[in-house]
Amino acid sequence: MAPGGNFEALLLSIPSAPDDVQKLVGQVRETLRYHTPLIMSARKRQIRGLSLLHAGPDDAVLPEPSTFEEMYFMLEFFLRQRNRPVVPRSLDWQEFSLLSPFDMVDVAGTEIRLTPIEFDLAAEFFRHMNRPLDREHLEMIGWQSGVAAGSRTLDANVSKLRRKLGLYVDQPHGLSLHAVWGMGYQLSQLGKREAPGTWTFPADFRVASAAPSQLST
Prior knowledge:
Elements: E1 10-13, H1 18-32, E2 38-42, H2 44-53, E3 60-63, H3 68-81, E4 90-93, E5 96-99, E6 104-107, E7 110-113, H4 116-127, E8 133-134, H5 135-144, H6 151-165, E9 175-180, E10 184-189
Parallel strand pairs: 1-2, 2-3
Antiparallel strand pairs: 4-5, 5-6, 6-7, 8-10, 9-10
């Protein structure tokens, strides 16, 4: 990051140790000064101290989000309050394009409709490609989506997601969603593929009738 870099905002995940907070914020200020607003994502017990000691006039201190989707809603809220640009977003990986907030995945031109919990799980698996995710973490995503937590609920939704998106070892895209013994599940890349694209922000939260190609950046 170049000194004085120009960003709409910078999201900081605040560590729990006070000394680490001081070091992190100090490093950011040294690099960006006060030109870039900071969104400090913190645990509830940290919010008051951060607001008093570290937050500048253009900064925000907000509760730590529980899910990936919640994080982007938080960012959108911050940008809209300051009349900063907000554009459509999607997460792309080869033939897959996850379109939010439509709970839809475009797979090589075919639209696949998912339930909210299936979409949240898909986003989590794709952003943690080749990394195992434990059951407790995945069940919390289900709870945030309004579904009661439980092993059968998680297994059923992962199974449906695997079937809908064809995340099997014998498919040409080279992605496999599989169980990790004693832990949870993992989405694995079996062939040599490029890294996923970058998430951008949505223009609004409504389910639109536009075609997927009109929603991607």
